[in-house]
Amino acid sequence: MVDLAVKIGSVALKNPIMPASGTFTEDLAGVFDLDLLGAHVTKTITPEKRIGNPTPRVCEVQGSMLNSIGIPSKGVDHFVREIVPIYQKFSAPLIVSISGNTMDEFARICEKVSVPGVAAIEVNISCPNIEEDGKAFAMRPSTTLRVMKVLRGATDLPLWAKLTPNTGETPDVARAAESGGADALVVSNTLLSMAIDVKTRKPKLGNLMGGLSGPALKPISLRMAYQCAKSVNIPVIGCGGIETVEDVVEYLIAGASAVQVGTATFVNPTTMPRLIDDLRAWLFAEKFQSVNDLIGSVRDDEAADSVVFMEAAP
Amino acid sequence: MVDLAVKIGSVALKNPIMPASGTFTEDLAGVFDLDLLGAHVTKTITPEKRIGNPTPRVCEVQGSMLNSIGIPSKGVDHFVREIVPIYQKFSAPLIVSISGNTMDEFARICEKVSVPGVAAIEVNISCPNIEEDGKAFAMRPSTTLRVMKVLRGATDLPLWAKLTPNTGETPDVARAAESGGADALVVSNTLLSMAIDVKTRKPKLGNLMGGLSGPALKPISLRMAYQCAKSVNIPVIGCGGIETVEDVVEYLIAGASAVQVGTATFVNPTTMPRLIDDLRAWLFAEKFQSVNDLIGSVRDDEAADSVVFMEAAP
Amino acid sequence: MTYTRAEFPIESHSAPFHEVDCQVKSNEAINDEYYLLILNAPPEILDCKPGQFFHLLCPSKDGRSPYLRRPMSIYGYFPDKGELHFLYKAVGEGTRTMAQLEAGERLNVLGPLGSGFTIRDEWQNLLIVARGVGLATLAPLAQEALRKGKNLTAICSARSPEMLMSVERFRALGANVLTVTDSEGTSGVDDLEGLIESRIAQSGVDVFYTCGSNRLLKLLQRLGAKHGIAGEIALEQQMACGIGMCQCCVRSLRRGGEIVYERVCKEGPVFDLQEAMEW
Amino acid sequence: MTYTRAEFPIESHSAPFHEVDCQVKSNEAINDEYYLLILNAPPEILDCKPGQFFHLLCPSKDGRSPYLRRPMSIYGYFPDKGELHFLYKAVGEGTRTMAQLEAGERLNVLGPLGSGFTIRDEWQNLLIVARGVGLATLAPLAQEALRKGKNLTAICSARSPEMLMSVERFRALGANVLTVTDSEGTSGVDDLEGLIESRIAQSGVDVFYTCGSNRLLKLLQRLGAKHGIAGEIALEQQMACGIGMCQCCVRSLRRGGEIVYERVCKEGPVFDLQEAMEW
Ligand SMILES: Cc1cc2nc3c(=O)[nH]c(=O)nc-3n(C[C@H](O)[C@H](O)[C@H](O)COP(=O)(O)OP(=O)(O)OC[C@H]3O[C@@H](n4cnc5c(N)ncnc54)[C@H](O)[C@@H]3O)c2cc1C
Ligand SMILES: Cc1cc2nc3c(=O)[nH]c(=O)nc-3n(C[C@H](O)[C@H](O)[C@H](O)COP(=O)(O)OP(=O)(O)OC[C@H]3O[C@@H](n4cnc5c(N)ncnc54)[C@H](O)[C@@H]3O)c2cc1C
Ligand SMILES: Cc1cc2nc3c(=O)[nH]c(=O)nc-3n(C[C@H](O)[C@H](O)[C@H](O)COP(=O)(O)O)c2cc1C
Ligand SMILES: Cc1cc2nc3c(=O)[nH]c(=O)nc-3n(C[C@H](O)[C@H](O)[C@H](O)COP(=O)(O)O)c2cc1C
Ligand code: FES
Ligand code: FES
Question: Would you write out chain A's pLDDT as a tens digit for each of its 314 residues?
Fold first, then answer.
């Protein structure tokens, strides 16, 4: 029997497969038993009610998609009252994703979701915020450090910091998040992109630009996951373009202790349980006793250290 | 007859299709008449001889590729003596791509390639350099401004600044390049990525990481081309993932005055002449007299100005 | 592979749906633009309601693979024959690859999804106004209405008489079918208004059902308000997940003096006619 | 579409090559691992040299489309029959989709590319040492050598006798074929060394040709140096463009006391045996 259990700091997962924020709700229980999953991660919520972005909110690009959903939210009170209890019926740990427009707002919501039944808080520091001119906190080490310190002061729950690929400073941002008190890193969110309809000459998204997710993102977020695993001592959770068991294995080898699956669930709603089965089979075939033996086993010894922190493509 | 001619500042191109640096040599003359192209862009050269990166230097990712060729170079003297004369037999303008490890080196090579027969210099400020800790100049507005001023002082030829997607500050970097004296922007180079062989657990590239190019890159560099066109008054040249005439049209609508084609030529060596034919046919079918009427015709009026400068995905 | 939903511990607020690979029984062009796809389907996905849809994973053909699924209304569901029908127009990459499906090939479908049309017991005289692929969405409604013994009138609108699909289908079901076309100059808003007003005057109308165009929406909202006639409309929106998770498919609705947003895939695709907003 | 190269204004330092869609004549498994692909090819791409290769655009099958082309040695070129042959092993995504090609389908090929083997007039006794797909690369060399009236010995090495392809092909051409296999315990370096030394002693050897493994390279370099025998080796490397533009396919070579880097697709795939380096 292959052991799939992993630990993200103090949070124990029975397997390393969980959904990515914004691509999962309890509606998926219509397709499979959600307690198969390593954890449940909810859509980012904000303190107040928000409508979200204009439609169209998604479009296709070659073999992947863009989205600009925005963060429509019924507000944190509704969430704590209505949504958290739903997940109490499951044994998988509940991870709640939050965001705020200002540090203050962010701290406030962080306190509010620190309720029984929540196993960890995923802090989405990768979406645009007002105080920083529309930049995301996680675009710079300095703002990452500042916001993480504030959030660390606001809760005793584990904090998972979700990073953005829209930066040239991933290792520095990762270290800043760790110094600021993050218990794990989620790597990463979507990459700012655009598509135009050549017939109408209009942007394909109502919001002009949106985030790239799906297979096209994988080589980028895999690189980030690797850089982060090399830069910090807290666990890294890989996220971006995962569709097949080989994708999962690639992230684990690169140093991720678990992975999140987003867009692939839209294409095939049973992707996650299939990945769990396939991962078990893969590890068995490759004679691993525990998934932990695979994590971080990348054979990069031939490459010079300096290369690891390379930040531009050659 | 549809008019395909465009101008990049003082450089007149008979059509907006040209190769991307590093994906083109005179060897392509084995497949089609190179004078069909709007311009010729040579592989980045450095002042001294360089070997380049360890092999494997390329690998496939889903529907795209990674490379870490490095910049093998026979040095600028060899280039001026042996390569520049080859291109004198063509009427298409010759664009020479250069790079340097330090500002000083960069300025020196910039002077050296300012010879008759060279129509413009593409300055590759998007590859890692020593003075900046391995970061590329074009990752930050400050270093972009500094290096562009130095280069501007080193030549009277038009300077095309080639930007990197490995930054969260594209509009600022674009403005810095313009202030520093760039005559056009090439948007953009490859994005730092990684792939691991799950069987051997080794990185698929000898250099660990490399740059993503091909279709996966398109929504990202299209977004950057759009942001740049909105941010500066100098022409923008789109580059990244172009394969079909719709891709070309998308960049032109977004505000690019011309485009560069890279990886697609590896897959289909006749991509560029086909794109020229297809662009002419597309413009004719859509009743455009001149390609210039298409450039920048994006219908983005419904979107708020602030959105244009958004820098993180929502 | 199917995964158990046995231990499903949430009070299901939605009917069950399934992801299944179905075999194509036939897939034929019925005119220049429209195709009829018939799948051999297992019984568990044939417990459908008129107005519901499936989310189809388009095949990859000639090296093109549409990435996202495509939503498609149920044109017919026949548990007795084990058949599921779709009527679709080849407009873009996804539907064009669908059009290349051949008998014997497989198509992965997810559904049935969304909430369907309502037929209240007290409604006797039903009026369907449909155009284009809207006919596909409304055909199962007609079948259900007639099964329930309602009086049904269907106004079918099209560009030209050749494009009037499903007319036979509606007639065979026993509906009173009126056709209007652009080429005959009978499909204008004024003509339609006259036609519907006379229908209301003659036999009364309890409810309107429609889908699609802004023009029809506005007309029916006006007539509905004027005569106090109920109505439902099926709306479309780009979709990613199709099952309520991604929030990409929202439409704005006027409700209780406010504007609210609901998901076409989950609260819809069928909405109250008066709440629907132009787009 | 083909574009004119008529006005080609550069002194061509390479022979002409072409991008062409060819029709598959047949594509069959010849044992558990290897396939023989026969294309109907136009005359302009059949002016090949032994050792050259084509860059193949693998078809997209079952939704997988290998992105880059795949380099493949020419196993046979027959201008008279209008045929181009490849012998390949299905190892990964690209070659596995190739294995699915059926007669009548089309395959886009680019070539012939690279520089081939040399056969100097003064060389009379040629020795080929090959294993695995290396046999594919060396078969046209055998044909050319025998056309030129040379004495040719081919040592074919394989895992087991069943995997010994092309033996018949070499024999039919008139070569003296020796076979060694792992399963019979005859393919070790020592065995090979003995075999080759006795060949040298018996009839003399003027040149070695090989491709592939480090083991063979080292052995032949040693024997070549010892006896002053010339040699050539065909090398492999990942490729993107295949025509000299991207510089990804370099190999290091020892030349004039220095280490130099050359492109397998352009200066290669055939290199001087003594210059080649282990990898
Ligand atoms: C609930 C529902 C039921 C539908 N029923 C039918 C039907 O029975 N018959 C039929 O022919 N069509 C129907 N449509 C429309 C159908 O989904 C689109 O025509 C189809 O998705 C177009 O895909 P494409 O790749 O061919 O076109 P493209 O234009 O290439 O599609 C690009 C993207 O836009 C989306 N898209 C394009 N048009 C629409 C649209 N009208 N609605 C939603 N998404 C769209 C596609 O799904 C895809 O993601 C329905 C749509 C919805 C929402
Ligand atoms: C000049 C030359 C001639 C060749 N001739 C033959 C031949 O006649 N018969 C034959 O069976 N094989 C030959 N090969 C090897 C053949 O190119 C590879 O087996 C093939 O590219 C594998 O592709 P894949 O997608 O199946 O495997 P994958 O492992 O999935 O390929 C992944 C990537 O690595 C590259 N790659 C993998 N193996 C090799 C290799 N050995 N050399 C170069 N690139 C590789 C692929 O092209 C692809 O880009 C030759 C290689 C070269 C360079
Ligand atoms: C429709 C959609 C909505 C998303 N919403 C959120 C969100 O609310 N919060 C967040 O942190 N990430 C959000 N993401 C990003 C995903 O969590 C994930 O980081 C990203 O999609 C990359 O993973 P994937 O390629 O597996 O989809 C969203 C992604 C998509 C496609
Ligand atoms: C093999 C390879 C080598 C490259 N070498 C260079 C280079 O020397 N200088 C440079 O500015 N860009 C270089 N690039 C980047 C391309 O010029 C181009 O910016 C990038 O590939 C994106 O375009 P594409 O998607 O059309 O390939 C290289 C790209 C590839 C694939
Ligand atoms: S399509 Fe995802 S919520 Fe409706
Ligand atoms: S494969 Fe591009 S130079 Fe050899």
Answer: 899 999 999 999 999 999 999 999 999 999 999 999 999 999 999 998 888 899 999 999 999 999 999 888 899 999 999 999 999 999 999 999 999 989 999 999 999 999 999 999 999 999 877 666 678 999 999 999 999 999 999 999 999 999 999 999 999 999 999 999 999 999 999 999 999 999 999 999 999 999 999 999 999 999 999 999 999 999 999 999 999 999 999 999 999 999 999 999 999 999 999 999 999 999 999 999 999 999 999 999 876 555 555 555 55
What range defines the domain where residue B281 resides?
A: 6-308
In a domain, A104, yes or no: yes
Name which of C65, C67, C97 to mutate to probe chain D: the one with the most chain D Cβ atoms within 10 A of its Cβ: C65
Neighbours of C30 (CB within 10 A): 11
For residue D228, the distance in angstroms to the closest alpha carbon of chain B comes to 31
Q: What is the pLDDT of residue D173?
A: 82
Residue A313 lies in a domain: no
Does the beta carbon of C246 lie inside 6 Å of ligand 5? yes
DSSP C68-112: S-EEEE-SEEETTTTEEEEEEE--SHHHHHHHT--TT-EEEEEEE
Helix (H) and strand (E) counts in chain D: 5, 15
Structural domains of chain B, count: 1
Residues C5, A69: C-beta atoms closer than 8 Å = no
How far is the C-alpha of D16 from the C-alpha of B30, rounded, in Å? 6
pLDDT at C6: 39
Does B60 contact D237 at a Cβ distance shorter than 8 Å? Answer: no
Task: Report CA(A96)–ligand 5 centroid distance (Å).
Answer: 20
Lowest-pLDDT range of B100-104, B246-250, D111-115: B100-104
Within a domain: B1? no
**Mean pLDDT taken over chain D:** 90
Measured between its terminal Cα atoms, the distance across chain C in Å is: 40
Number of the ligand closest to the Cα of A67? 3
Domain ranges of chain D: 3-113, 125-230
Give CA–CA dist D15/D52, Å, rounded: 11
Residue type, A273: P
3-class secondary-structure state, position D200? helix
Parallel, antiparallel, or unpaired for β B191-194 and B184-187? unpaired
Quote the CA–CA distance of D124 and D133 in Å, as a whole number.
25
Band of pLDDT at residue C278, cut at 50, 70 and 90? confident
Q: Is B127 part of the annotated catalytic residue set?
A: yes
Residues of chain B in contact with residue D1, where contact means CB-CB under 8 angstroms, are 270, 274, 277
CATH no. for residue B103?
3.20.20.70
Cβ-Cβ contacts under 8 Å, D2 against chain B: 270
Just give the CATH number of D3-113. 2.40.30.10
Among candidate residues A59, A110, A127, A239, the one labeled active-site is A127
Beta-sheet strands, E only, within chain B: 6-8, 11-13, 17-19, 40-41, 49-50, 58-61, 64-67, 73-74, 94-98, 120-124, 159-162, 184-187, 191-194, 209-213, 236-239, 258-261
The closest ligand to the CA of A59 turns out to be 1
Domain D125-230: CATH class, spelled out:
alpha beta
ipTM above 0.90, yes or no: yes
User: For the segment C25-68, what is each residue's pLDDT rounded down to a tens digit?
Assistant: 999 998 888 999 999 999 999 999 999 999 999 988 776 789 99
Closest CA to C40 of C95, C104, C102: C104
Write out the H or E segment, with its range, that includes residue C46.
none
Structural domain includes residue A91: yes
Q: Is A105 left (phi over 0), alpha (psi -120 to 50) or beta?
A: alpha
Partners of residue A40 on adjacent β-strands: A94
Q: Tell me whether residues B63 and A62 touch, CB distance under 8 A.
A: yes
- Residue A306: Cβ within 10 Å count: 10
Q: Are B262 and D240 in contact (CB under 8 A)?
A: no
